[in-house]
Amino acid sequence: MKKILIDCDPGIDDALAIALAHGSPDLEVVGLTSVGGNVGLEHTTTNALCLTEFYGMTVPVARGADRPLIRDPRDASEVHGPNGLGNVVLPAPERTPRNEHAVEFIIDTLAASPGEISLTAVGPLTNIALALRREPRIAEWVREFVIMGGSYTRGNNTPAAEFNIAADPEAAAVVFGASWRTVMIGLDLTVQARATASVRSRFTEFGRFKQELLSPCLDFYGGSVPYRAGDGPPIHDACAVAYVLDPSLITTVPARVDVETHGRFTSGMTVTDFAGEPALHNALVATELRQDAFWDLLTDSFRTVASSLPGA
Questions:
Q1: GO terms for molecular function, please (predicted)?
Q2: How many CA atoms does the CB half-sphere of 71 hold within 13 Å?
């Protein structure tokens, strides 16, 4: 069984990514760390706690950075709603975050299990950059480092930049400059994972999970994310967790990725060079998703989550 530590900013698609990880018999979630991103840190931390209680997860939650390294905070509340989970209303959490800051939790958790944990970041990369600055050896201690972020052809926050990178380009530059090889699950891949009507028909038997979280999340997301009629909204963050579960679901290509931090129109762009010297490659860049197998994996995990909700 693989271990995963998820750094997140819940967020509708974060909620589904966490469900995918929790529902898989092949993953052990060792913790969640929150960061300001889709909405402010107060909401992302509360959402992480609420989701773990709703799903019946007994994992630590650690609160992280509330703002980028040097820039003013930005959010995506127009996509995820004012509290981050669209129209979903979950009970207030009974648990509280750990006293330990997310950066310390990441360092301590990786140090305790070197080579065992897939560190997976599905929000802005501020916590990860701060952890690298404090303890560069985390780049050696991870089993792998996977992000949902970036793109080699497009943006969704600006024409050039994906939101998670654009929210803190300086942090992203630190992360891509570290000694690990980042697995970049970017927009070019995640837009292939669309929750179409056909996909959603798989979820009809999921009871409270569907009624209280899946359907309202996807309904809200579908109304806030522009897409062609019939395509359905892309479920970005779950793709990063899916890679951890089964890398064969996603084709990756080695490349050099640098983050633009100064461009007037291109700040946050992940400048990707597939053709450069192999010795300079610092990333595996996702290009193609095995869609049927991806949705099979997601559906199986969601079925497990639905059948094991507290009170179900």
A1: purine nucleosidase activity
A2: 21
**Out of 22, 80, 236, 281, which one is annotated catalytic?**
236
Residue 165: inside a domain: yes
Q: What is the domain-level CATH number for residue 175? A: 3.90.245.10
312 within a domain of the structure (yes/no): no
Mean pLDDT of 191-219: 95
CA distance 274 to 244: 23
Find, among 228, 23, 35, the residue nearest to 124 by Cα.
35
Which range is least confidently modeled, 68-72, 85-89, 159-163?
A: 85-89
294 close to 241: Cβ distance less than 8 angstroms: no
Tens of pLDDT along 271-281? 999 998 999 99
Which residues span the domain enclosing 276?
Answer: 2-307
Question: In Å, what is the CA distance from 65 to each residue of 103, 132, 282, 286, 308?
Answer: 8, 14, 25, 27, 32
Count of residues making up the chain: 312
Percent of the chain with pLDDT over 90: 95
| 236 tagged catalytic | yes
- The count of domains in the chain is 1
Peptide bond before 11: cis, by omega within 30 degrees of 0? yes
Q: Render pLDDT for 206-245 as a digit per residue (tens, 0 to 9).
A: 999 999 999 999 999 877 666 655 688 999 999 999 999 9
Element (H, E) at 155: none
> Does 55 fall in a domain?
yes
Radius of gyration for the alpha carbons in the chain, expressed in angstroms and rounded: 18
Asked if 102 and 129 count as a contact pair (C-beta separation under 8 A), the reply is no
